[in-house]
Amino acid sequence: MSMATHLPGTDIRHHTLVVLVENKAGVLARVAGLFARRGFNIYSLAVAPTEDERFSRITIVVDVASSPLEQITKQLFKLINVVKISELDPRDAVERELMLATVRADAATRSQVIELVGVFGGRIVDVGHDELTVSLDGEPHRLDDLEDLLRPFGIVELQRTGRVALPRLERTPGLRPVRRSA
Amino acid sequence: MQLNGGQALIKALEMEGVDVMFGLPGGAILPVYDPIIDSPIRHILVRHEQGAGHMAEGFAHATGRPGVCMVTSGPAATNVVTPLCDAYMDSIPMVCITGQVPFPAIGTDAFQECDTIGITRSVTKHNELVTEAQDIPLAVRQAFHIATTGRPGPVLLDIPKDIVDPKNPRSHLDWHWPTDEEVRASLPGYRPNTQGHPRMIKQAAELMLTARKPIVYAGGGILKARAAEALRELAELCGIHVVTTLMARGAFPDDHPLCLGMPGMHGNYTAVTAMQQSDLLIALGSRFDDRVTGKLDGFAPDAKIIHVDIDPAELGKVRRPDVPIVGDCRLVIEELVIAVRDLLDGGAAFPDRQGWASTISGWQEKHPLTYEQSEPGEALKPQFVLERLRDSTPDDTIVASGVGQHQMWTSQWWRFNHPYTFVNSGGLGTMGFAVPAAIGAKVGRPDRMVWAVDGDGCFQMTAQELVTAASERIPVKVAILNNAYLGMVRQWQEMFYEERYSEVYLSPDLPDYKLWAEAMGCVGMRVESPDDVDAAIQKANEIDDRPVVIDFRTDSREKVYPMVPAGLTNDAIIVDPSQGEGGR
Lengths: 182, 584
Fold this sequence. Notes:
The structure holds two protein chains of two kinds.
Chain A: E1 14-22, H1 27-37, E2 42-49, E3 55-63, H2 66-78, E4 82-88, E5 93-104, H3 110-119, E6 123-127, E7 131-138, H4 140-150, E8 155-160, E9 164-167
Chain B: E1 2-4, H1 5-15, E2 20-24, H2 30-33, E3 42-45, H3 49-63, E4 67-71, H4 75-79, H5 81-89, E5 94-100, H6 116-120, E6 126-129, H7 136-148, E7 154-160, E8 172-174, H8 180-186, H9 198-210, E9 214-218, H10 220-224, H11 228-238, E10 241-244, E11 259-261, H12 269-277, E12 280-284, H13 290-293, E13 304-309, E14 323-326, H14 329-345, H15 354-366, H16 382-391, E15 398-401, H17 405-413, E16 422-423, H18 434-444, E17 450-455, H19 456-462, H20 465-471, E18 477-482, H21 487-496, H22 513-519, E19 523-527, H23 530-542, E20 548-553
Parallel strand pairs in B: 2-3, 2-4, 4-5, 5-7, 6-7, 9-10, 9-12, 10-11, 12-13, 13-14, 15-16, 15-17, 17-18, 18-20, 19-20
Antiparallel strand pairs in B: 1-8
């Protein structure tokens, strides 16, 4: 998870692709296999069915310059089971991620950890003798911050979901951005 | 109508218009082979599954219709991986059906089980494991639709035994043949775009009217799109010279005054140099392959690029086009013709390109393809054999080749005046392609004479399919240019590895090709002297009831020229051995 510190939206090499696919066996393997075959690294991945059960939405964060990204997008779109791809600019998207972390917290430090998690709006979801498991959902960079601040206490285990994203909604009624059809 | 899955599969193939398929049965596919006895489909029993795949490719190359092959699970499926990859690289429409162990046994390491879908995922346009008998007709319709539309390619259907075995209740289904609309609705992510964007077409036409040194860079997409006539109309209307890549030989007739022949690593000087110096490359169904461009950053440095391709991923993949056009080559070229005519009608005119034309004809005069005839008593020159073969066969003869020196010489020295007359493996470069591909082509076009030009190394990889040809009475003819070496490898070792010939010697007479041919039910001949070449070809041409193999003993020292050494720009082209051996 050390790479997470490189992630914040300021780093232009990270791109978020939202890929709508048919909800069928083997489709994720096709998508992941394509990345592997063309030599691209998937930074994070989240998959779940959409409101329409025939389709799933895959949110992929990739670590590439923009010109290979165009090629990978085109190659992805050639997969028969891929229905739609959008690239989300972090500035035009709502992004969320969930983190669970088990942190050392003995009698001396427990209250500091609880306080810290509270400041971030996270929750304590499990309590052990000298460990706490905390959860935080929010913008990915907020998760990075909490992770950094928890590290001195001793992180025992940590799991993040990978980000999910949806486009930001229009704020002005009647005004729509010009959109090119795929 | 109640059918079992095996019957439904064969009936679906019949409904798709399949009249011939290539294959070899085995345990998991057995139930599908049973109904073939009652079907009008001709099944050609191959001797190795790789042969079935290449025959399907050769059939598709020659006819434009999808080739079909069917094999069993496990080792049979892995044996068709090479032809699938070959078809994928060269955009050949092909449908491959593989048997699979019964659905409940999948994942248990059952006998002859392999993960066919996983293995073939990256070498097919699409593949599908069919899990219910009821899905078979739709799966077959989807497979043919996907294989033949958009950028064509191979599609594989993996069929577990339980859904086709009549003894298993899971194989029973109510026959329903899906409508076009149902097929479309079942593929929500597949909508190939065939119509070029009108604004882009107009921009392209304007560029074509102002360029002073334009070249059409025609690729295999011209043939896939049946666009040879449209291309000719465009080239003649604009007076633009055309190069035809290895995959496009015959897409524009070699005897046309505007045809410059093959570009690339072993292209002729004029085709290579005209591209290098052009100010506008009109890439039609071509993909800027490394064998064409040479070192990329020195390729056609002053050229603007119009790139037409049905596959959006090709546009900008290698070279960024100034005018990208996604669409079917035939439709786009027809629109381009209209757009150019409109501009001409509106008073536009072509610039004076007389200087460019005379530069080109100057190159052609100064740097024709050449070779030195052998001295009496020396081995045959392969180019001489090809010239005699070319001049002794009908103009519309279909030629299949393997991969290596003989392939390059065939492309260089044949005269391809008709589309769909050159069948070869371009992208994957599959040695052993020629014999089975020639058989497939002959099955598809029995009215045509079909010659395979093969190397001795290639021939040894798939020669067993001549047994198939002999027993099925498929009279293909094979010219082996036998130089006793893996010739292209030898050429590279000579030129770039200081003549250190590591593991390339094969021997001219082990095996004895004449005896081997005869053992396989073919007529076998051997030719060692230039004086005997014509008579042997004549005799071969007269035989029409069985395959013929001629073992031409050729000079192992002969190299393919011109050559652009790998890693250099096309300006570094070596025209003939007198220029030294290049290298770095």
